[in-house]
Fold each of these.
Amino acid sequence: MRTRYTIVNRKLVAADSDSCEVTMFVNPDEMERKYLLADLKLDEHTLASALDPDEISRMEFEPEHVAVIFKRPKNYSAEEQFLFKVGSVGAYLFKERLVIVTADDSGLIEDIPQIPAFSPGGLILKMIYRSIVHFREHLKIISRISDELQKKINTALENRHLINMFTLQTSLVYYLNSLNSNGALLEKLRNNAAKIGLTTEELEILDDTLIENNQCMKQAQIYSDILAGLMDARASIVSNNLNVLMKTLTIITIAIMTPTLVVSAFSMNVGIPMQHHPYAFWIIMGMALLAMFGFLAFLRIKRW
């Protein structure tokens, strides 16, 4: 799907003309791919990278444009079972226009704040900055979900919550790789600022974006380390809870078997003491209860 944008009152708004400043292709079909490859002369591998969620961030210089691939988080869905995924975005800087290719827009353009003047490089920096902000917001959500799962694991014996914690840890690995990849891209953009044509103001935005990316990456690393430690601790807690439950069931079983043994001894089809005694039933029941209370007293003395 092709969407065109132009700048009106310092904001990007939808346009119909092909001469607009920004053109975005969301999951392009076969005809749109042919247009990108034949008319705009995009590299086929670079175009595929923009649609590949596993591609790393990078920048490549082509004869007529500069190709920039960066990572951004995908919108979370409850169907993912606590798995936060990442996607790739391809931005192609021409002299007077910017072409964006992505598999899922997810508010990629709508989230950009006011734009003082059109600059392909500056617009890319703003998109990367918004992606980092998106990463940071997702990290807060992951932290809250982790806290809730920890409370459930303390009392639960199921593996479901542990699996959810493992899924969160996998998400943090994806985020760390993406943020590290974006950091390398930002360094390359700064080293090639003159070639791209970044202004002094845009260089300041680039430095701020690089700082935000580093802080976000450190935060994700801290969350990942904490979650890894908690995974081991929570697994031990679940194992200990199971041991306590088995201990309780064993005590109950033995406490029941003790009086059963006494009663069984007086239920054999042979001659036994007190078989003609008028109070034999109550005497045997008393002995059974005494045996059970004696066993419980023994457990209390041993502090089992």
Amino acid sequence: MAPPPDWIAVDWGTSRLRAWAMGADGRPLAGAESGEGMGRLAPDGFEPALLRLAGPWLPAARGPVPVMACGMVGSRQGWVEAPYRAVPCAPLGAGFARAPAQDARLAVHVVPGLRQDRPPDVMRGEETQIAGVLAGDTGFDGVVCLPGTHTKWAHLSAGEVVSFTSCMTGELFDLLSRVSVLRHTLGGGWEDAAFAEGVGETLARPERLMTQLFALRAASLLGRLAPDAARARLSGLLIGAELAATRPWWLGRRVVVVGAEALSAIYLRALGLQGVAAERRDGRAMTLAGLAAARAMLAEGVA
């Protein structure tokens, strides 16, 4: 039988719940996940969902086990609202929200997200990954790119998130490929040359994105674009437009891409085409490092 955890780390998004039993050294002893994300749960459903995953790790006779949670679990529709902290600020700080739990074995603390008033923007969950980057590189000065449904670009300096911006690139790709007329055009494979061409076109002329999107359908109907190339080109067109919009963030700066391997590789490729030698950090590892930093703050009474 595995030893009981010193604490439990939780990454709770809109669609997925991920939890890890953590040792005192900050290393995971066990992990589990489910599809019980915030979007599927009523307010009274969060504690049972967590217990279904973490219950086997909780000893029968012991005081409350600290749970450090990040993500949409702290949203207005989540278990408990953890109010946003305004940038510029450190990615982690005072204001961890205590979620109400009936089970005496749980002491659940939720990491607040970050907000930016001008221009308006918010993040939840990414601040923890940013904290993970800083935990391994305390002197980092540059930009962290966090690809996903809503990709974030965050400028970090002197241990703080100075500013950030969000792009709906991932959600647009999903909607266009599943719902729009382009769903009849796209294959399931990939052609790097088509991706690179798409990135270059909208990076140079982002105002042509709307016409280039329908041209994908037309080229397919005319037999000039294979399905796998169409999928890669769509991704390239959208990411090229994103890079055009975020040029001040990545041009001439150190850039670290944080995320899953496959998606990160696409962004690394796009940035590499512009001569940016971006670095990669694993998203799961950065989440755990950030939650470990939050756990240390809680233990020290900082939060």
Amino acid sequence: MAVEKVPDEIAKALVDPACYAEDTPLQTAFTWLRAHRPVAPIEVEGFDPFWAITRYADIVEIGKNPKKFHNGDRQTTLTDQANDGRIREMTGGSPHLIRSLVQMDPPDHPIYRALTMDWFTPGNVRKLEGRIREIARAAVARMRAMDGRCDFVRDVALGYPLHVIMEILGVPEEDEGRMLMLTQELFGVHDDDLKRGDDAGSSMEYAQQIQAVVADFDSYFSAISAGRRANPRDDLATVIANAQINGEPMGGFESLCYYMLVATAGHDTTSSSTAGAIWELAKDPAEFAKVRANPGLIPSLVDEAIRWITPVKHFMRSATIDTEIRGQAIAAGDWMMLCFLSGNRDEDVFDDPFRFRVDRQPNRHMAFGYGAHVCLGQHLAKLEMRIFFEELLPHLTHVELDGEPTRSKASFVNGPKSVPIRFRFQ
């Protein structure tokens, strides 16, 4: 039996980075898919066919089965055919320019994940609370000094979690700007404000941009790694530099990719969620008043902001065997897009899912993923956000938008790019 075709405008919305910068077309597409085709065949010219998985329960089921649904067999993020081909030419056949935890499957994934897992347990990150609070207070003090107006993304949200993770990793403060720029270039390859150009200022294709950013990370972290092997410190860079896999030193490429994972995902998603919270509080004085009057709602605010923004919009998986999802036959080798943003608006799971509510309970969002690949730094991210709002909200008496916020153009990792606000401190 032929599988019914998804309307073109729905299919194109899922692959167009510009749609991820505009809330309405994307949410319209996801809402239609959840209602009519929760396991939907997507065919768009220039892309390999894939299945869009838009219901919460199905995304969870796939996440719980890493042996049946692999990360590493094909591209882990949506990539068009032309750039997939170029990447395979660059790598000698591999679909990956990067091989971090994200691109790994068993048996490698649990072995590599275990190297740093202890650093990000709830108990260990709580030990960092004092220092994180100092950094948060400094961020709030800088905001106070801005005389009632700022772009919250540029002036506050980007720098705060960046400084936290770079201290943990062991990157000097003077190099944080370089790490931010490389992160934005890695995740913003389709955004004119963020992507990298060549030396003449011309646009570079996707694969070339990623290759150039990886080369810059390699140049930087090769020196860090050599230094930590010669002079170990109490930081994450030392753990990575001296890590062993099955009794042998971790390979140089895998080490680089581990550094990159921590140096990018360790702050970008947290800054997006923090900025998203301020964006929504500035839009809704009632929600702002509610959380100011009851600081006990701050943990709930944090989870709601993470659900609302869902910084990692998707991951791709491929089936290793013939199987079924929600009664739909899936063949071995089929490619699937796990649409986390759609799962976080699933009407079967979330009451009034299109409303930002600081007191939402329960809030079993899937913004950190699910299963074996659940975000390693989720506890740190939530701690950072909680501490920041504990330091900010007692002093912030008013906040409103001071212009139109914007989002980055990216179908993989995206979030607020600019949130201009007016505010008052007491």
